Amino acid sequence: MAVNDQLGDVSYLGFQAALAGYIAALVCFGIQFASARGAAPTAAEAVSMSMRAASKGRTALLDRGQSGGVGQNGAIGQIVKPERRPRRPMGALFGRAALLVTVIGFAAHLFSIVTRGIAAGRAPWGNMYEFTSLICAAAVAGFLFVLLKTKTSSVGFFVMIPVVILMFVGGTKLYTQVETLVPALHSYWLVIHVLAVSLSSGVLMVSGAASVMYLLRARYERKLLAEKEWVREAGPAEAGGFVPQATVADRSRLASLPSLAALDRVAYRTAIVAFPVYTFAVIAGALWAEVAWGRYWGWDPKETCAFVSWVFYAAYLHARATAGWRGTRSAWISVLGFVSVLFNLFVINIVVSGLHSYAGLN
Amino acid sequence: MVTRDTTHLTGGLTPDAPEPAAPGHGDAPREPYRQGPIRGALAFLRNIWRQLTSMRTALVLLFLLALASLPGALLPQWSLNTSKTAQYIIDHGAWGTLLNRFGFFEVFASPWYAAIYLLLFTSLIGCLLPRTWDFVGQIRMKPVATPRNLARMPHSGSVSTTGSVAEVAERVTGGLRGWRKVVRTENSGVTISAEKGFVREVGNLLFHFSLLGLLVAIAVGKLLGFEGSVIITADDGAQSSFCSSTPSNYDNFRPGLLVDGTDLTPFCVNIDKFAATYTESGQASSFVASIRYQSGADLNTQNRTPMALEVNDPLRIQGQRLYLLGHGYTPEFKITYPDGQVQTGGEPFQPQDSAFTSQGAVKFLDPPGYTGAAVLKHQLAVVGIFAPSASINGGIMTSTFPAPESPGVAIQIYRGDLGMDTGKAQSIFSIDTNQVANGKLVKLNRANLAPGESMSLDDGTKVTFTGYKEWVSLQTSYDPAQGWALVFAITLLIGLMISLTIKRRRVWFRIAAGAGGAGAGEQGSPAPTSTEEALSDPVRTVVDKGTVRVDIGGLARTDQAGYGDEFSKLIRLAEAP
Ligand code: HEM
After folding, report:
1. Residue B479 DSSP class
2. How high is the ipTM of this complex?
């Protein structure tokens, strides 16, 4: 197998360009996210909140009229809060910029992966640098797809955080020159198994990000409810009641997160796409182990950890069908599942290391 | 989140039927004295069984399974690496001993792990049997009757249109292609109940039954299978042959619980040559062992089939598989005794690093010309390092490259009683150092040798490093159930994909003449009942003036969100074309 070092360098340039794009995207998404603080709740969010309230056996307190009413009722001398500020145009601008740099970064990323494959004369996912890159590309692709389908651009911020971290570590600590593979990896199962693992892990990253957002949003809504309840119990301002100077919704950046339902949907939809692929990847891994190590399953640390992740995701799907476990609890399980996937890819490979061997990292 | 319990509407469609009442409520007797102890015990058992087979218990057990597996990934395990595990226990003192006592270094064979998965699979069986039964019943049943108040369904809408009830019904049933449907007449019109996505349940059951099948296949493999490994030095001569006829031919034989090793299917292999190639940086790029093998009827003949055995490509013979798992070097020595007699010998040395600096011992147990106790005074051992590309730094020989470019050995000679007849098993890679400690084995001189060079001992014996051969480590594996494991893995995956992509859903139409006919009259816009529904499918209420009123309700199992678009299309079925 011929190895082309020059092309390998070109590929690495593409990788760096992609990382630069993603960092810019992270910053832009961050600004967009921060500037959306205190944005008016969408109709959907209002419904979502009123129903949360109703579910607690209380009347809906959170419709927009009421939230404005707090200000209108303000006593003399009280700083009157206007109704929640509308979304600032700056946010939208940065949102568009974020999307643009993400797409450019993604194009550079694909270029980098393809040229790396050509340079090495094999599938470009044979060592940790290479499949870290592939996972991140899958995550960004997953995010772009979600964006296309649901327009929830704030997912971008939460997906870009792990993507940028992983790309950075991949491009510095894990980077290796283009190399041929050790004989243990000369197998078409490498192509199938690692591709499936990487793609599904990338999509699970989107799912995990959505679940984290779900948990943040759920916490925020709990606070919001508590505050409203508190204001209501304190009574109207003119009767000596207390009017908060800024509501939780005004103070918190989390107000601009999509509704719980939308987040739950993103997390679930991405998980049910990725889970069968991940299952397939584990089965392909077992088939490979059968030809490589003499048994299809041997509780090697990597196999064990893959099993743990698989069981977590099975539990997540179960939880969504179990009374009392939907919502926050299943979101937690999904986050655990994702943490175990990442743990398997990095900590197990680098620290524990069993039979799984990767060129360039021992 | 709020989710209205719609179980009563769905005839068991929702998976999590209400949890069984806690003991002391529904099942427990109000008047204990009337109840015999046997009935009491039965009620108690039934309650336990119900708890065990509930979704919630399954979930908790799944969770426990994941947590309990974790130490298997994080702590060294006896079955994977004995020396690492032993070292870990020593390093961690009392904690190590305690963890060892509780099976943390043998997680997947520990009783607590078995308890978790056995409970889980009991729960699975307890859950699958009634569900299969229900499912068979549901196939034979007609779609459930239309609920009275369709506006309370998660998806609902109503349409007023012109035409007769029969015409609208015709149009709707015609549009419901691929749905199981039934038309019923009511006092004021007709209702149509339809359902789709039964295959989802098939997929789900297939998935869960495949899990059971997979567990059984794994268990059978563990009972009836075996693994054996052996190290053989490649050599064109007869020295290199191995026959799998009895467990004792293996260096290490790990039988399944029901395997006693008396009826192994034999095959024989000769290892003629081993070749590895490396890149400039010393990374291996290929391993090939040239072998000849015979099995079955060939065993009694001289017929041998030649083949190249490679990593990732085992030889499959009569259900057994032969793998090339590792390789290394076998240095060879010639001993020329003072009386001129010559002995030769070589042993596999164990690689210590990626450049194949290897360690081992060659033992000469039968010095010529001695008998009786004198033999035990003159046994020789050549102990030390072999380096395929030797380099000496500070007196220590290491290898700089894995290929044999400038081989060398750094050896230490011992003479005396090697202790082979003490009955204690000895490693082939080392001598028994107790024999040295108790003075029975005497340390003589040491030397660094290149091929062809020799050293002399005090009595005039000459030790020559004649060269090296290469060894391979082979493994035979046998698992009669692995084909079944694959079959179940595939059905598991198919079932999973079916179950996750197909949605099970129902739709009801109530078609009645006039605006107020169907009893679903002036409801106004019904309150949405859960967050998802409210967002995905803002309730459609399309009321025109007309002569036929159609109320439509929809219900999807689990993921309501995906049903919205399709439901909008279903509503349009009722509208005039
Ligand atoms: C042995 C461990 C188990 C695993 C790994 C497992 C895994 C899964 C997975 C991945 C799903 C989602 C895919 C699908 O809907 O088909 C699922 C669904 C389901 N499982 Fe299990 N399961 C296990 C045991 C059980 C047990 C013991 C029960 C009964 C108590 C059960 C009842 C269900 C039900 C009712 C669903 C359908 C949920 C829905 O409608 O979405 N499972 N299971």
Report:
1. -
2. 0.84
